[in-house]
Design a protein that fits this description.
Elements: H1 2-24, H2 31-46, H3 67-108, H4 112-124, H5 134-154, H6 157-173, H7 178-183, H8 186-202, H9 205-219, H10 225-254, E1 259-260, H11 267-278, H12 289-299, H13 318-333, E2 338-339, H14 340-355, H15 360-382, H16 387-394, H17 397-415, H18 431-440, E3 448-449, H19 452-460, H20 476-479, H21 485-493, H22 499-505, E4 510-514, H23 518-526, E5 531-536, E6 540-545
Parallel strand pairs: 1-2, 3-4
Antiparallel strand pairs: 4-6, 5-6
Helix pairs in contact: 1-3, 1-4, 1-17, 2-3, 2-19, 3-4, 3-5, 3-15, 4-15, 5-6, 5-15, 6-11, 8-14, 9-10, 14-15
């Protein structure tokens, strides 16, 4: 009967999580979605040729960093249009929510905290739920933690197969995060290595080995009986001390003050799996890109100018600071204990998050499991009722009705504003301006200067661009050119560099700009005689540069 009730609660939790995830999924697409479709179309027609076909810059090298996801997205778009992509994003969002719930429930063995934490995690991730490859990798990283912990616990082959399959998928779906997969192994390996070193030092293993070798050498010589006896006595005394230390240390490890520190021999096999996984980066049509992409990205300046890559300011991130405070409060002011690997994981991910705000995603997904473990400890220590008893009290008929009502109300509140949204936001993307360009301008000779945020939409419409949100493409580390197109755009858009010089350098013939951009305001006020206005609407303006003479 209890098992039947548990199944019903699980089903209810999954349904409510699914509804909540759909409510969080935006209808309007982000700029990356548009180039994703066109890149997928190009791959379907021509394969991976290593060259960019969408910018009017000649011979730009392109790595196709998420070619598999691009191709799948294109096929979905070809069959079902924007509606198909939106539904797919909803499905992936639901899968992510259910995966986080399932991983928490299986690893921490509770339903109540797993459900509440999953809702909180998905709410924090709401800004990253989009038709982008990262949504798939969030799911894969959550499964990675599950497979690692279950393999360490059981050493079953199916978890090893899962761990090997995930980096293979990442190398073909979202190569930029391939190195991060291996970061998730490090806390477990670090705990194991420290445990080995501690054993060597505390149990004086090297000293014991040294004494045994000396005794073995002496036994081969004649007339060394007295020295052998002395060494044997010394060895016996040392082993006696070690036995006492072992008893004392076993008691300390069973009831540590704050940090639970164990040596699990299965971790050495986890290291073998990690080494095998390193080779999966070769199983992709991209060559060595899985190993070089991140390093090249970090060498350039694209990460310093893209919002999601910038360092996090805690004052502007309520969710992050509240989560950090919650972790600290539990560890400082309660009797809860934390595993050393969990402490390494939280500390490492927190450091990465502060260095790059997009890493709040991994801090939240992986940190949810660790937080769940701590909360479960607190309940066992401070609450006299077990989880089953609490669920019995909450999940009666009235309680279930209240829970359903509250979750449906929250979901409706979060999703109601999206009901009127369109797949393409005409305030953000030049929909009508692109119609005009396609109907009135010869794209064979035109060289447009455009801005970063809507370049991808222009690509989608078949208009060659100066730049788009594939930032790495325009950096010399990837493009194979001496010119730093990305830096030129950043300097020009911020008026750190005179736009006229940029236009001359790249032989620009046409300009499309936001009407409220700095550049357009200067053109309108001071240099209108140099530019012929071809089109304008409420958001965008299109110019042709007048030829001198």
């Amino acid at each position: 009967m209890e098992k039947k009730k548990s199944v019903k609660i699980t089903i209810l939790a999954i349904v409510l999580i699914a509804i909540f995830c759909i409510a969080l999924t935006p209808v309007t697409f982000q700029n990356d979605t548009y180039y994703t479709i066109k890149v997928g179309e190009h791959i379907a027609q021509y394969g991976i040729d290593g060259k960019d076909p969408f910018s009017w810059h000649e011979n730009l090298g392109y790595t196709y960093p998420h070619w598999g996801y691009d191709l799948i997205t294109y096929f979905i778009y070809q069959a079902f249009g924007f509606t198909g992509i939106y539904i797919t994003t909803c499905i992936l969002s639901v899968i992510l929510g259910i995966t986080i719930y399932g991983v928490n429930r299986k690893l921490v063995k509770n339903q109540m905290f797993s459900f509440v934490i999953t809702i909180a995690v998905m709410y924090i991730l709401r800004g990253y739920i989009a038709a982008r490859a990262q949504l798939v990798t969030f799911i894969l990283f959550a499964l990675t933690i599950y497979f690692i912990e279950k393999f360490i616990e059981t050493k079953k082959k199916r978890y090893a197969i899962g761990l090997i399959s995930i980096p293979l998928a990442i190398a073909n779906l979202h190569v930029a995060v391939f190195p991060f997969y291996f970061v998730l192994y490090l806390p477990y390996i670090a705990e194991y290595v420290l445990a080995l070193l501690a054993d060597m030092i505390i149990y004086r293993k090297l000293e014991v080995i040294s004494l045994k070798r000396k005794i073995k050498k002496m036994m081969k010589k004649v007339g060394q009986e007295e020295k052998i006896e002395t060494l044997k006595k010394e060895l016996k005394e040392l082993e006696g001390k070690i036995d006492k230390i072992k008893v004392k240390r076993t008691k300390e490890l069973q009831n540590p003050y704050k940090i639970q520190f164990t040596k699990n021999s299965n971790v050495k096999w986890l290291i073998v799996i990690m080494i095998i996984c390193l080779l999966t980066g070769l199983m992709t049509p991209l060559g060595t890109t899985p190993y070089t992409y991140l390093a090249k990205t970090m060498q350039g300046n694209t990460t310093q100018n893209i919002n999601e890559h910038l360092p996090m300011t805690l004052a502007n991130s309520t969710e992050a600071i509240c989560t950090i405070i919650l972790f600290l409060a539990i560890l400082i002011f309660t009797k809860a204990k934390i595993r050393l690997s969990d402490l390494f994981m939280v500390g490492g991910l927190c450091y990465l998050m502060l260095g790059s705000r997009r890493q709040i995603t991994m801090f939240t997904i992986v940190g949810s499991i660790i937080l769940n473990r701590l909360l479960m400890q607190l309940m066992n220590i401070y609450v006299k009722y077990k989880e089953e008893e609490i669920l019995d009290k909450i999940c009666n008929k009235i309680g279930i009705v209240i829970i359903i009502g509250v979750m449906l109300g929250i979901s409706y509140y979060l999703g109601k504003d999206k009901l009127k949204d369109k797949f393409v936001d005409e305030k953000t993307y030049p929909v009508k301006a692109s119609d005009f360009i396609l109907e009135n301008i010869d794209l064979g000779t035109a060289r447009f200067y455009n801005e970063y945020n809507y370049g991808s939409y222009m690509i989608f419409r078949g208009i060659p661009v100066f730049i788009d949100s594939r930032a790495d493409l325009y950096a010399p580390e990837f493009s194979g050119k001496e010119e730093d197109i990305f830096s030129d755009f950043i300097d020009t858009s911020s008026i750190g560099k005179f736009y006229g010089d940029t236009f001359e350098k790249y032989d620009i013939t046409h300009i499309i700009a936001y009407k409220n951009s700095k550049m357009n305001m200067i053109i309108t006020k001071t240099e209108k005689n140099k530019y012929k206005e071809l089109y304008q609407d409420e958001q965008f303006v299109v110019y042709e540069i007048k030829k001198e003479g």
